Each structure stands twice: as structure tokens, then as C-alpha cells.
Amino acid sequence: MVGKVVNSDYFEPGSPGSGAGSFIVSGMENRSDHPPHTLAARPRRTRRGEETRRQLINAAIECLCERGYAATSIETVMERAGVSRGSVLHQFPTRIALITGAVEAAMDQMMAHTRGLMRQIPDPAARYRAMCDLFWETQNIPESAAVTEALLASRWDAALRDALRPIGMRVEAEIDQDTRATALAAGVKDVEAGMVHARVLILTLRGITLELMYDKGRAMIHRALEQIRAQHAAHCEEMLGPEKA
Questions:
Q1: The predicted structure's pLDDT at residue 39
Q2: Are 60 and 72 in contact (CB under 8 A)?
């Protein structure tokens, strides 16, 4: 069982998006943990309807994380959430709609997670220097595994790929905004270079999590992770100057 998703209706902060395949989730500062959706406005729901939706999204994220995309069916999610099929179809008329809603919520929760970590570091420069470790921590929460499952499935599921693309564009735009704000607050010399660096970090760290899925003790992969940390430290020294003692 994965951790309970906070406010499943949704999550937070990319360079101009290239679609589902480039989803990256970080989350920084100066933004609400629950930004408004840029997609089509949802119909008004009752309190009971909102709670049912949260239950379904939580259950779908858990299924994606624990069982994978192929096994995350409407029936499986319905059983885990403890709701009727009619309730599921009222909220999500198709399996793709259900999976898409769960992935959006998971990405939002990942961003909220990183933003929360960022807020715990009061010094802007220290916050920027900590990005690699904070991104790594976020890449290892259950919601990240759920997102990865869907991204891999979108390689061959065209309907899923099309449904995820606008969500990816929103998320990537928010990531770019948050990264820019963090870099500016830290006094980074080249903000654009900082934004690209953050993207490289997130994409690389996602790849590391994939490599560790079947064997978390792979020594060479952990050495590669340390190399990524060292490269980030060198980047920070170039952009911010030597770290003060």
C-alpha cells in the first residue's frame, strides 16, 4: 500500500514541453501547492462527488505503483476504492480518463512534495544547492513510480499519450517558472543555464530510479548517482561561487 495521496484531485511546477515523454516533476518555491488547472473547466461536483473522486484517484495511483499500468483496470480501482462501477463511470467515463486523472494528481503531489522540502531551507542559495538531493527524494516517493508506469505505457498507448500531453505541457511550464524563481532568488549568474541544469537533473534522476527498480544495491548505479551529485556541486560553484563555510 502506498502512502495516502494528499488532495488527489490534482499537483506542482519544465522548458517548453515535448509531451508526455518529457514529464519531469520537481517543484520549487513561491507557488501554491495546488495551482489551478489550465485544462477545460470541470463540472461542479457535490462534496460527496469530490470525496469519491479522491478515493478513486488515490486507489488508481496505488494500483499503478503496486501493479503497473496493464493491471490498473476500472474494476481493480473500483474494488480498491470500495465504490460502485456507476460511481466510477460518473467521475471517469473511460479507463484513460481515470489513469490520466491519477497521473495528473501524482505529478501534482510530487511537485508539492518538493516545494515542501524547499520551504524548509530558508536560505535561497542553500535551496538551490540542495536541488539534486531534493529532486532525488521526490523521485523516490510512490507517486513518482505511478507516473513512471504511465509514461512507459504511453510509448505504445496512443490514447494515453494524447491525454497526457496537455498535462505534461502544464507541468513543464510550472517547473520552468519555479526553477526560474529559485535561481533568481539564489542569485544564479545564468538563470537559463540553471533551468536547463534542473531539467537534466530531474530526467537523469528518473532514469536512475528505473535502473534501481529490480536491484536497489547496484554499486555502479550508486556511483553514478554520486557523480551526478558532484556535477551539481560543480554547477553550483560556477553559478553561485564557492559555498560559504
A1: 43
A2: yes
